[in-house]
Fold each of these.
Amino acid sequence: MDTTTPAARDVRYRTCPLCEAMCGLELEIEGDRVVRLRPDDADVWSKGYVCPKGAILPQLHADPDRLRAPLIRDGEAWREATWDEAFRRCAELLGGVLARHGKTAISAYIGNPTAHNFSLARYVGLFMGLSQLPVIYSAGTVDQWPKNVSCMLMYGHMWWIPTPDVQRTQYWMILGGNPQASQGSLLACPDLLGEIDRIRARGGKTVVVDPRRTGTADRADEWVAIVPGTDAAFLLAICNVLFAESLVRLGDLADVVNGVDEIRAAASDFTPERVAATCRIPADTIRRLAREIAAAPSAAVYGRIGLCNQEFGTLASALVDVVNFLTGNFDRPGGLMFGKPIAWSVNSLPNPEFASGLEFGRWKTRVRGAAEILGQAPLSCMAEEIATPGEGQIKALITIAGNPAISAPDAGRLDEALPQLECMISVDNYLNETTRHAHVILPGLSPLEQPHFDDLITMWAVRSAGNYSAPVFPPVPGRPAEWEILLKLGALAGGMTLEQIDVGAIDDGYFAALAMAQGVDAATILPLYEGRGPERLLDLQIRSGPFGDRYGERPGGLTLQSFVDAPHGIDMGPLVPRLRELLATPSGKVELAHGHVMADVPRLRARLDRPVQRLLLVSRRHLRSNNSWMHNLEPLVRGRDRCTLLVHPDDARPRSLADGALARVTSEAGTILVPVRVSDEMMPGVVSLPHGWGHDKDGIRLGVARRHAGVNSNILSPGRLVDPLSNNAVVNGIEVEVAPAG
């Protein structure tokens, strides 16, 4: 029983860093533990909303499996080490590979949690700059690379991704996204299911286009089932109707848009009648939806991961924006708009890599010959680059906040390849399915041991708001933050010795370069700071941002201290039109029909006549699950088994699949056994597995996750299947055979 009086407790306010919802939390602290956590009703952003993930931050902090000290592997055994010893071992391993094989033998993998970490998000780019590794892999090519490619070609920047202004729209169409589970993806807005209710309350409508009747579809006004991988055909049919019925209106953007006639020509073959059988959406429904979007006072068409990680990912992602343009719903309230972050993100700056112009295919992978796209090769190439002997074979790998042995397509091949490495170093808080193969594991801090202020995520936020969170608990003295770990590893991979590395000097140079990029004199402002690292950088981001004081030039402007003094955050208002300000294409105009994208239309046209012989597999996620490490927290995995194969009754009966019984699921890449859940939430012909499971490997230290192991859906994902325009993996719409396990 808790007998401590609330008055004796220390109250802290904090933003949850686990997803794009950025919920505000109120924590009551007693000594070194959280005794109470609840939503922060006064938070200017979330206003008391929180999802189940935010409530587990105290359990995450206290998780006995979370690593607190570096681990070094000696043979098959692990031992804790000091930080000095761990870095010496890293230097020995990386230096040996450099001496024996050269720089081309070293690579890195950057995981999704990097974007949500205060240090990693701001310093991973500097790690890449210091290391100068020829090839780096990331979770981006299993997630959103088609949006990066389409936005780079349409607007001139790969990270300025427009987001739906859901708080002001009258009509919201969601394709391939499930905000009920994701809380938003490339879309930052709290309580998105509540926003659906508010759209309805003001006379509007929400439509979900998805192969599964998701939790979002249940809350929406209409669910339209669609065959996986046919979204681009559906969107071109929408365009066809808009042109055929003279519903196209560009409004005041007509003078900055190229390619309308090319879109008209491309859509001419994709009549609703032509695509109806392929998409399995009646032609009348397609026509009605096109008319509804055009007639709505404001509308936002939004496509997310189901559109990205499919065979026409880039074309579908681009066409989402095209429909918004054609209906006059781009860059205006209630439509698709660009965020206006209080603190600019490092990713929002022009990429010097493309200073002399954009070019794809600057290099190709050694084994498969996959062409580079925006600096990335398909993640599935990593396994073959490790396993295939020859000049340039990967001998050393640095993984940063990722678990590709679970999350990579054709995961079984990667899991078999990782033990062949001469050097593997992981920046990670867990001994998991990937890091069990490492030689050194360097753990970061818990979310409650470090500050927080979202960086990249606010580029897709529906309001210009921000909230600074100070550390709740102090880290162990002498323990480095993730940014310091990254700088040392980057410098070591770049060929420096430990004795040559001056982390402070490197950070000063980085800060000065970023200040100069914002037109701020670094020599003048550097003496203002006592410390280094991401908090100093955050102050620069705020002060030189659109609402900042620019170090006194704009009296009354914002600084980091403004947020320290405002524990519930600061809200500078809703989105405003920014397209003309941000456009950075060579032509100075939006390229609706860029040649790289439109070259895929003939392949899509051929897809219309391609028969589907087997069941199609799609992925899914749950509200209580974001990344695989969350499966090690009991409150997030207790209850009914969620790692099941969803099958429509019409598909279950002829295959003798019984609810709760094991089924054998087979693709060209592999076979798994998984329990069946028969449900009419799936459209016939499509089955669904969640991602991020498969915690049954030897050598992991994930006590809770092992008891809820599940199966790894990426065993079924063929590594050869990628969207050719973006290198993004195709993990939705995979053909599979399903039969009783016997």
Note: The domain at 71-134+379-452+468-568 is CATH 3.40.50.740 (Rossmann fold).
Amino acid sequence: MSLRVDVLTLFPEMFDGVFGSSILGKAHARGLVELGTLNFRAYATNKHNTVDDYPFGGGGGMVIQPEPIFAAVESLLEKQRSSRKPRIILMCPQGARFSQEKAEELAAEDHLIFICGHYEGIDERVREHLVTDELSIGDFVLTGGELAAMTMIDAVVRLLPDALGNSTSARSDSFCSGLLEHPQYTRPAEFRGWKVPDVLLSGHHANIEKWRRTQSIERTWKRRPELLDGVELSKKEKIFLEQLKLEGK
């Protein structure tokens, strides 16, 4: 069974190009993922089709009402084929930081529903009684949750079997092993006097893997040293890391 992804949004047209292009478009065409958007304004309960109102207690901005969100999600649940409950994910700057680990977790689900908020926020009862996850792509605020949802969906779908066309591509990505990805090179072997490392041209796969591993460790130490705390290193790799620290690289 393919993964189903639904997005609740006031601006479904924002997803047209994203869902129809690149890896997402190909995965959808091959039946690996079903991608859909639902404008929850269609579930407004008033004659003006508004989905927001002033916050109780006063304050600036408008708050999205709970009724259209609950009704939209319930309409999707009536159509779902899987017996597993979907993950209902609220895009929220207060949420947990999205990560590669979370992407891998979500890629194992049958159905994901993303809720994209706008204005000042969403009624708290949506958080308390409907969503299963609150996620953020960083410590900043966007106009709405659409761009964050696109980012997360792309990260999830590319992990589906056969989505990339190469079963090893996703496994070698940054963060999949806990380390940043090693440097990559392609033809020509020499460009403007800059040469590809000899080991990559040697055809010796064991040496190539060793080089890539040490390069990943070095790059992680230079750019994201905090990641190394969660990586299991061999004795030789620990010695290599200590040398990097002593040399101040």
Note: The longest helix spans residues 205-223.
Amino acid sequence: MKLVLLALALLAIFVAITLWKARAHEARAVASHPPEGRILTVDGHRVHAVVMGPDRADAPDLVLIHGLSGNTRDFTHSLAPALAARYRVIIFDRPGLGHSERINRTGATITQQADLLSRAAQQLGAERPIVLGHSYGGAVALAWAVRRPETLSALVLLSAPSQPWQRDLGWYYRLTSHPVVGPLLIPLITAYAQDSRVSDTIDAIFAPQDPPPGYASHVGAGLTLHREALRTIALQRVNLLSEITALQRHYPQIDLPVESVHGTADTTVGLDIHALPLTEQIDGARLARLDGIGHMPQHVAQPEVIAAIDRAATRAGLPSKE
């Protein structure tokens, strides 16, 4: 009996230390990488939005939606500043990531996120923006175009998943999304994982290119290791296949200029599996194939990405020049 009590006492101490370390890690991340923009309240949820560029009538609105485990800083590192001379750029933290609040505890579907972000854009005065989505954010952008086509003028997709796939989910997402194992495992990751582990993941995502100088420190690895963020990422990832499978049949109804940019060396979201079929499913969709480029064209092929945005603006009848 004494051994049992001792074991329980040691377990309680370990849990208390783990939760303290997790909270401390999160506090350091928020202190070192605070919100870059403003916090909106949309449908009762806090949404972090960064607005850059000219506040004038002839500057087209451009919404940028980050990928699965990113935040606004993925775009504010270099792409958004490069666009801000000619576009009013609006960057959102997706629900549960960065400094935006979770919509719910089931991960928030791509359609729920699209609805929320479209209302957030309207709150900022962007009635019909160009919407750009990278990676998972591209699936949210597609859902936006399907669900609320009257609230955007064009669609730009970077390395975006759009079709059902066969690849196994993998043990990490199976565990962190599990209803019992996930809530037990995630505090351990937040408490004891080093930010350098996220930097290693960043290197893998950029391959075969290298991350630009200063990217890892700018984007804020600690924000990704926040408990709420880790759980959100896991749930959104595990739900994505079924959500895309349901969304896919609606692609032919998209009646907007669509520009897709995809690297031939992208092993995270394969060009042949996703971008090529999508050009057949959406009338007038155009694909820019980037030879030898991996999953992060917004950083390693920035001129080509900006050119795609400009093409989308022109096709939508929006001014894209100074």
Note: The CA atoms of residues 5 and 124 lie 57 Å apart.
Amino acid sequence: MNKIKAGIVGATGYAGVELLRLLISHPNVDVVGLSSVSFEGQSIDQVYPNLHSWCSDVLTSPEEFIPQCDVVFASLPHGLSEPLAKQCLEAGAVFIDLGADFRLNDKEEYAYWYKKEYTDMTLHEKSAYCIPELHRDRIKDVPIIGNPGCYPTSIALGITPAIKAGIIDTTHIIIDSKSGVTGAGRGLKQNTHYPEANEAFSAYAAGNHRHTPEIEQTLSEIAGSKVSVTFVPHLLPVNRGIESTIYTKLTSDVSVADVRKIYTDAYENERFVRVLPDGEYANIRNVKFSNFCDISIHMDSRTNTLIISSAIDNMVKGAAGQAIQNMNIRFALGEDIGLIIPPPAF
């Protein structure tokens, strides 16, 4: 088959360059265009020297390569993706948005949490949000794909089997998540400045993080009723990785072994979800640079609490890898093509 021609808008951000790193090795893809407002006119390997001898494409404007593309990935701040989606629609290219603009169904929720307005609802009517393991059937023909956030991915994969099995109370779920500093993006911020982040660990945006409505939207769809969460993210002094610990009350008399069976059955055919054996804990080290989500299951029998630990690489399964997985589905390729990368041992 002819190779898929791909472009990346926002190629010098962390998620954008991770997309390029993975797509360079994808056997069915040719990267035909890269853009960056900050570095336009420079070659990508001037910005990221690790790409010497791999890619030296010059960074241009999206308008120069969108007409050549079958698929365009955008990794941009919220509020910037709708015009690009429209350009791609008119050019006949699939648009995959790694930002927040096509994640929320409710325009009022988007306005409340992101302080922006949807400007073209026809674009949203032609889009679909997709965590592949949960929503792959949605995107087989759509022209616009909303790629999920990193925290919502780790959380939805971590708790979905328990919700579907009807063994937990979904009226109030507590989620404690920890992320590496790449989750904050490449722009300079005081809390991710080395002296501030190193040898430090703290919560941020407690109870009001912008991923909260996305988490609740996904879990409510799965449950078939309103799911409410208390979500508290934390900043880890590491480059990459997310670990989410989810606490929820059991409503059924089940053992850890029973719950693990529910999870292994739910994910037995999923290439990128690994349900860990009894006694193991999900660890960001074991998913680094990979598209895997590791899940471990624990229980506090004294308080009748189910504890789920879910670990992903926020730059791969939480961003670029999942976007490629969505591209593979959309173009009827094997989901794991270009993503079979075993995590390093350390």
Note: The chain has a mean pLDDT of 96.
